[in-house]
Amino acid sequence: MEKKPQFSGPRRPMGGGGARPGMKGRKGQQRDTRDPYVINEHIRAREVRLVGDNVEQGIYPLSKALKMAEEQELDLIEISPNAEPPVCRILDYQKFLYQQKKRQKEQKAKAAKVVVKEIRFGPQTDDHDYNFKLKHAVGFLKEGSKVKAYVFFRGRSILFKEQGEVLLLRFANDLEEYGKVEMMPVLEGKRMTIMLTPLKAPAKKETPAKEKPAKEEKPEADNN
Questions:
Q1: Distance CA 8, CA 148 (A)
Q2: Average pLDDT over residues 27-32
Q3: Residue 208 CB-half CA count within 13 A
Q4: Cis amide linkage into residue 85, ω under 30° from 0
Q5: At 75, which helix (H) or strand (E)?
Q6: CB 74 within 8 A of CB 22
Q7: Cα dihedral 7→12→14→18 (10° resolution)
Q8: How far apart are CA 78 and CA 38, in angstroms?
Q9: Is the pTM value of this prediction over 0.70?
Q10: What domains are defined for the chain?
Q11: How far apart are the first and last CA of the chain?
């Protein structure tokens, strides 16, 4: 069989021509499947709910919402596609993506900084051991770490689970100046756990600088 010659000329883009007059470059183009949001003509709903500071919030036909975006030379961005009707905002799409990535980066940085320190108790911890571990917990919370304290029940000591709960609540109460309870005591298998998160450090008050006493001027020696 003879092979048919392949066409190597320019192909016509799917979905119509270039950007519509008065609208930004992404509009009127084929949607990039890597885009996390559906925008402009690629939105398939008949009507959308507009939110944001630059519009009168409410439900609009899609054609009207697109026209409003076109008048502002911005993009119509579907930010909540599963809502009824879908929620959209009129913004510059590239700026919107940049702000979203920046926010995610900040959240990841915050999450990476969180350190969790574990402190283990037995169900019948004596006062000396308790105070020793309490002192360590104070140090952890002061440095900004979370504290995960747990009572480990070995064998038949599970019978003392109420005693373990009382111990953890006492521990949280003794640390109330340094941390707050994020998770109340929970029994998971052989462990009963409580989570404490550090309190925000109070703003340091600026103390006025003490005025230095004026130096006494020594009388000049009389050369006469």
A1: 65
A2: 59
A3: 3
A4: yes
A5: strand 75-80
A6: no
A7: 160
A8: 6
A9: no
A10: 19-106 (3.10.20.80), 114-198 (3.30.110.10)
A11: 129
